[in-house]
Design a protein that fits this description.
245 residues, Metallo-beta-lactamase, Chain A, six-stranded mixed beta sheet, 29% helix, globular, hydrolase activity
Length: 245
């Protein structure tokens, strides 16, 4: 039996609350976590898994959609606690996850620091310090666009760059579910481009939305906002049309 569990996690940093949604998929042999949250999120993940009747002790793999801190920050801690797990990411994301290249988000934040107003610099510096808390983790396996992983009824890798160059979404063949990561986000019931101010290439991000339209999607899960309830195809088309106006 194939199962999909949404792990809703609330995180507070610097007085700001965020809710994000890692996903657990499992079958008789595998339990795979899609994204894992900020550094030191292990306890939050454990509790969220328990709430859906699952123990992370059975975790076999973690697939990371991209190297942003809220998606990959807990990787190192998970690997220390469960050293048998396999960490998987797109080949373009590997050097950032492993710490061999500086985070693109950190580069962006440092570049912004030089041009923002003085009264905004304290917040920007705190954000930079927070990004620097990331602890690298070894990527055990890299994937590429169109690759199909054999677990949990089949998982197709959908390369959806824009937010980050190596960003991936995951299409679960057995349930026609698209796990979109930060390719799109649900805000107040509407589908939007995730965090435009942090999207490194908006044109590429919109091409990625068009790429999602190539799939027959019955369920769309966003890291920020959870499951989208509505006409998925029309909502994706509307995003593209809105940008063209």
């Amino acid at each position: 039996m194939h199962q999909v569990h949404l792990l809703e996690i609330e995180f507070e940093n610097d007085g700001l609350k965020q809710v994000y949604t890692p996903v657990l998929i499992q079958d008789e042999h595998e339990m795979i976590l899609i994204d894992c949250g900020y550094p030191n999120s292990g306890d939050h993940l454990e509790k969220a898994a328990e709430q859906v009747g699952v123990s992370l002790s059975g975790l076999t793999r973690v697939i990371v959609t991209h190297h942003d801190l809220d998606h990959a920050g807990a990787l190192s801690g998970l690997k220390k606690k469960y050293p048998h797990i396999e960490i998987i990411a797109h080949e373009l994301e590997r050097p950032y996850i492993e710490g061999k290249k500086k985070s693109l988000r950190l580069e962006q934040a440092e570049a912004m620091l030089a041009v923002i107003k003085n009264e905004e610099k304290a917040d920007a510096e705190r954000f930079i310090s927070f990004l620097q808390t990331y602890e690298p983790a070894t990527v055990d396996r890299t994937v590429v666009a169109g690759e199909r992983l054999p677990w949990c009824g089949g998982i197709e890798i959908v390369h959806t760059p824009g937010h980050m160059p190596g960003h991936i979404s995951l299409y679960l063949l057995f349930s026609k579910t698209m796990i979109a990561g930060d390719a799109v986000v649900v805000e107040h019931g509407r589908l939007n481009i995730a965090n435009p101010q942090y999207t490194l290439d908006m044109e590429e991000a919109l091409r990625s939305v068009r790429r999602l339209l190539d799939y027959d999607i019955d369920h769309l899960i966003c890291y920020h906002g959870g499951t989208f309830h509505g006409d998925i195809k029309n909502a994706l088309k509307q995003l593209i049309q809105d940008d063209a106006l």
